[in-house]
C-alpha cells in the first residue's frame, strides 16, 4: 500500500497544479471591475497592459468601464459597483474627510504629472505667462486635479487666477473643448487628444504644458476600499503586477508601437494623433514607469490642494497610501 501511495502522489500533485492553472485560465479568471474617470491616452500603460494580455497572465478578467467624472467614479467604487477606481488621488482625501467607515486607499500610480496643456486661440511667436493677464481663461471643474494644478502653475508665474483673469468654470468637463471651439475663451486648459486635434485643425495652439510646470504629483492613481485590501489583497497584488508590466512595456517602446497597440481604445482618434499624444506625454515624463507612490508626491498634492482652498484636512501618507504592494512587486 505504501508503494501505491507514492506512485499516486506525483499524479495527485500534477492534478492539483493543473487545477490551479485552469482556475487562472481565460475561461475562469477572476473578474475585476475597474471604473476609470475618463477615457484618455494619458492612461496608455493601462490599455497597453490590457492589450498585451498582462492581466490575463495574472488570472484577471478585467472589466473596464468609463464613469466620465470623479464623483461618478467614486460613487461606483463606494457603492460596490467597481472593485478598483482609476481617478485623481485627491478624491481619496475628500472621502476620508467625510469620516468614511471604509476609507479608500491608493495602492498604485499610473500618471505622475498633470496631463493638460494650455491652448491659445491665437498663434504667438513667443508665449509668456503674463499674456494670460486680462484674458478669458476656460478652466476645468472646481476642486478637480486639473483645475487645482492649473491654478498652482498660474500662481507660480505670478498670476492670481481669481483677480488677474476672467476664469470660467461653469462648463461641464465633456463640453469644454466644444465651448472653446465655438468661440468661448482666449485660452483653455485641455487634455489630449483634444489639444493636439485643435492644433492640427487650426482651432488653437499649444503654448505650454501644465505637466512640465507642476512637478511630480500622484495625478491619476488606482485605489480601492480598505476592506478590499484586507479581504482580497492577493488580487490587488496580481492587478498591480500586471499594471507594472504595462508600465515597463510603455517605457521601453517607441510612441508609434504604443499607439498601434492602444488605438483600438480610441476608435474616433486617428493612429497618427495617438502617436503624437503618446510622444508628448512620454517626453514630459507623465507616464509613471512603476506603480510606487512616493511620499514627496503625496505632500506636493496636498500643497496644491491647500493653495487652491480645496484641502479639507491634511492626511498623513501612511493613512491613505499602501506602498508595500508596489514596493514588493518592483523589487
UniProtKB/TrEMBL annotation:
Pfam families xref list? NMT1
The entry's localization annotation reads: Periplasm
Its chief place of residence is periplasm
Q: Cross-referenced PROSITE patterns, in alphabetical order?
A: PROKAR_LIPOPROTEIN
Annotated InterPro entries: SsuA/THI5
Gene Ontology cellular component annotations, sorted alphabetically: periplasmic space
Q: Which family is it part of?
A: Belongs to the bacterial solute-binding protein SsuA/TauA family.
Q: What is this protein called?
A: SsuA/THI5-like domain-containing protein
Amino acid at each position: 500500500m505504501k508503494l501505491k501511495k507514492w506512485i499516486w502522489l506525483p499524479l495527485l500533485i500534477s492534478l492539483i497544479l493543473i487545477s490551479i492553472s485552469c482556475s487562472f485560465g481565460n475561461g475562469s479568471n477572476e473578474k475585476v471591475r475597474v471604473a476609470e474617470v475618463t477615457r484618455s491616452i494619458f492612461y496608455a500603460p493601462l490599455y497597453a497592459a490590457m492589450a498585451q494580455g498582462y492581466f490575463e497572465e495574472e488570472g484577471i478578467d478585467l472589466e473596464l468601464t468609463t464613469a466620465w467624472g470623479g464623483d461618478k467614479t467614486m460613487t461606483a467604487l463606494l457603492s460596490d459597483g467597481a472593485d478598483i477606481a482609476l481617478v485623481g488621488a485627491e478624491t481619496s482625501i475628500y472621502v476620508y474627510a467625510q469620516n468614511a467607515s471604509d476609507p479608500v486607499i491608493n495602492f498604485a500610480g499610473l500618471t505622475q504629472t498633470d496631463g493638460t496643456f494650455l491652448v491659445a486661440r491665437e498663434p504667438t511667436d513667443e508665449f509668456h505667462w503674463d499674456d494670460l493677464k486680462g484674458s478669458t481663461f476656460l478652466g476645468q471643474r472646481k476642486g478637480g486635479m486639473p483645475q487645482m494644478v492649473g491654478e498652482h502653475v498660474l500662481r507660480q508665474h505670478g498670476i492670481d487666477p481669481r483677480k488677474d483673469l476672467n476664469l470660467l468654470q461653469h462648463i461641464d468637463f465633456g463640453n469644454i473643448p466644444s465651448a472653446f471651439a465655438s468661440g468661448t475663451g482666449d485660452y483653455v486648459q485641455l487634455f489630449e487628444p483634444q489639444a493636439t486635434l485643435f492644433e492640427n485643425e487650426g482651432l488653437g495652439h499649444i503654448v505650454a504644458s501644465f505637466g512640465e510646470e507642476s512637478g511630480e504629483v500622484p495625478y491619476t492613481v488606482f485605489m480601492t476600499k480598505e476592506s478590499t485590501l484586507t479581504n482580497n489583497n492577493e488580487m490587488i497584488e496580481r492587478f498591480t503586477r500586471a499594471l507594472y508590466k504595462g508600465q515597463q512595456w510603455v517605457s521601453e517602446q517607441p510612441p508609434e508601437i504604443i499607439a498601434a497597440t492602444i488605438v483600438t481604445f480610441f476608435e474616433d482618434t486617428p493612429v497618427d494623433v495617438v502617436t503624437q499624444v503618446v510622444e508628448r506625454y512620454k517626453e514630459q515624463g507623465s507616464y509613471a514607469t512603476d506603480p510606487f507612490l512616493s511620499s514627496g508626491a503625496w505632500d506636493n498634492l496636498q500643497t496644491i490642494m491647500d493653495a487652491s482652498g480645496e484641502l479639507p484636512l491634511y492626511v498623513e501618507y501612511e493613512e491613505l497610501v499602501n506602498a508595500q504592494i508596489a514596493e514588493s512587486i518592483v523589487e
